[in-house]
Write a structure and sequence with these properties.
2 copies of one chain form a homodimer.
Chain A: E1 9-14, E2 26-41, H1 49-61, E3 63-73, H2 79-97, E4 104-111, H3 118-130, H4 137-143, E5 152-160, E6 163-172, E7 185-190, H5 196-209, E8 214-215, E9 225-230, H6 242-263, E10 271-279, H7 282-294, H8 296-303, H9 309-317, E11 329-332, E12 335-339, E13 342-343, H10 348-352, E14 360-366, E15 372-379, H11 383-390
Parallel strand pairs in A: 3-4, 7-9, 8-15, 10-14
Antiparallel strand pairs in A: 1-2, 2-3, 2-9, 5-6, 6-7, 10-15, 11-12, 11-14, 12-13
């Protein structure tokens, strides 16, 4: 497992007791110098206070020094008081860590609608600042967990003309989902210098190919946030063709984190790797993939290890995408289940008994001869998912 | 409970043994004379053989004598052989019951992709025809059940200038859903004469206000079918302003059946009565209502008796509908949970403890001051739903 922290960054975690006394619920990453900042935020119309603050910093300054994440309190749907509390938490942290408040990118996850307990922040922030440099990537990833069952981090070491560049990321959130506590948060650190506009553009493209193609239950949180900081501490400035190399690495790291999010989807036992091809357009392929990936009937069938092609074609047929049913082909784990408008003659249950025991299930769907394609990672729907979400607040 | 069969109709049920030996799995309704026929069918691109046959009869002839429904075999995704089998089943029934095959509207539900066992049809059809006139509305409704936990039927007696008109309907399907066996099927019988174009038009409008506003899991089957027969046996011809009276009754009967479908949604313990108002348009209101009604997080919260307004506003915020978050108001069971972008000061958990124990949960959402409105019935998402659908084929 990749564990190196990019140069010029220090990490810290601390316990504020926002929800569960004693557990680490605060995480801070600080760059020794100003870093190019990228941010990708929830598209939900209800945006949490830290999303509004972070969006403003990224847009206005395009640079930052730190990322501050708390769990236990989402600071969403908290009005002007929530906004003031978010800024005050950043100011307290800035004071303790020798930063400017407007250089701190905030992110929160936890119960929606409750105001921050500012006294807990006041008590915890000095310890957090004092801990800078003591936390590992895994410590940071663990501190931002909520319903996650394991810490998620990934990274790569790149070589640019003999000089080493590190890229490391953490993520949390048992899916791209929106229960009170399962916001998706992620942070990427890089010790190369990348111009803000290049850094931001590669983030948008990489996110579109990775996090945006992963789904647990189709919900999108009020707090979803991804931050990227590139500080140049490695002495390498990435420009020109090298940007493509860095972007490819960034895409791999985000894909790794996105896969881990789906694998750790609430109650999930399976990861469907849905690949739709032959659609009239990429957008149509995406709609078809999402309709299948969100269908409760397909998701429960995968949980039940059931080669239920009927539910898959049924979802395709109601997706709204135009295709000729006679041209559709569906293969699960490499076994062709459906073509020419009918199931194939293969003995699915026998052929798929073993493959359906595995965690990763490739589901290949061709809708015809069109140029459109899309891929999506989706979890299954299980008893445990219902338990987690029905019993959550009690 | 309304149990009268409209005049001039005879009902029969029989056991063919398509899936479970001994249980009633065939149902036939015959009108003594030709009746105006209406049909509303699945929008799924994969249409089962009986859907194709029934659509053709309704479109071409606009009249029919009978409705023939089987459970256990869906005859969907069965190609040209399936179409031939569907027609042959109708021909066998026509022969036994003294009808013409093209006067029989077929509907099937059961496992997708398997071909009919024609020998079972041949053996069962004579008994089915011999039983005509012996089955009650409840017998019919029971014979077409699959994962349903209770038979669903409803009706009304109307008076037109001192003459009585009966309207009776049955329905099956644990929701508007598409597992292998939970197709939505419904049949309405009326002993007034109504011109085919009037009868069909009132069906389309009534279905749009009832069945189309009920959801269990958002899936749409390959076999969904609603048939209506109006035979004139009461001696009443409904025209002019009386059409509105009949349409209102038809809408009430379909609403009754639609409510029963959601109440009996697979594993369901709750019926959410979602009413969205103040949206930019009716279509926007519908999108918002469906996003909330399909959200696994909202559905599991209702199952968990949790006044989780955060998940409701989160679903609204990601619905794609444009509104001002500050203007949104959400009330559950009459208790206002959210307004001005924040939760209200009420003690929800105390106020809603009792109401959330009930089966029916009114959820009123105002998005602003626009003219758009929509209502939707939606079930919750439970452990039992996952059990039914994960274990279904085994």
């Amino acid at each position: 497992m990749f564990t190196a922290i990019p140069k010029g960054f220090r990490l810290a975690v601390a316990s504020a007791g926002f929800k569960t006394p004693g557990r680490k619920d605060l995480a801070l990453a600080v760059s020794d110098s100003s870093a190019s900042a990228a941010g990708v935020f929830t598209t939900n119309l209800f945006k949490a206070a830290p999303v509004l603050v972070g969006q403003d910093i990224v847009k206005r300054k395009q640079s930052a020094r730190a990322v501050l994440i708390n769990t236990g309190q989402a600071n969403a749907c908290t009005g002007s008081q929530g906004l003031a509390n978010c800024k005050r938490a950043a100011a307290l942290t800035a004071l303790a860590a020798g930063l400017e408040a407007h250089d701190i990118l905030p992110a929160s996850t936890g119960v929606i609608g409750a105001q921050f307990s500012m006294s807990l922040w006041e008590k915890a922030v000095p310890a957090l600042a004092a801990n800078l440099g003591t936390a590992t990537l895994e410590d940071f990833a663990s501190a931002i967990m909520t319903t996650d069952s394991f810490p998620k981090y990934a990274g790569e070491r790149l070589d640019f003309n003999g000089k080493s560049v590190l890229l490391a990321g953490v993520a949390k959130g048992a899916g791209m989902i929106c229960p009170n506590m399962a916001t998706m948060l992620s942070m990427l650190l890089c010790d190369a210098f990348v111009a803000p506009e290049d850094w931001q553009a590669m983030f948008r493209r990489a996110v579109d190919k990775t996090f945006n193609r992963a789904t647990v239950d189709g919900d999108t949180s009020t707090n979803d946030t991804l931050y990227g900081l590139a500080n140049g501490a490695s002495g390498v400035t990435v420009t020109g063709r090298d940007l493509e190399v860095l972007e490819a690495a960034l895409t791999r790291v985000l894909a790794d984190l996105a896969y881990k999010l789906v694998r750790d989807g609430e109650g999930a036992t399976k990861v469907m790797h849905i690949a739709v091809t032959g659609a009239p357009s990429d957008k149509d392929a995406e709609i078809a993939a999402r309709t299948v990936g969100h269908s409760p009937l397909v998701k429960t069938a995968m949980y039940g290890k059931d080669a239920n092609w009927g539910r898959i074609v049924c979802a395709l047929g109601r997706s709204g995408v135009h295709f000729n049913p006679e041209e559709v082909r569906v293969a699960l784990c490499g076994v062709e289940l459906f073509k020419n408008g009918q199931p194939t003659d293969l003995d699915f249950d026998a052929l798929l008994k073993e493959p359906l025991e595995q965690r990763d299930l490739p589901l290949d769907i061709s809708l015809g001869t069109g140029p459109g394609a899309y891929s999506l990672l989706a979890s299954d729907l299980t008893h445990e998912y219902v338990s987690i979400n029905a019993d959550y607040r009690s």
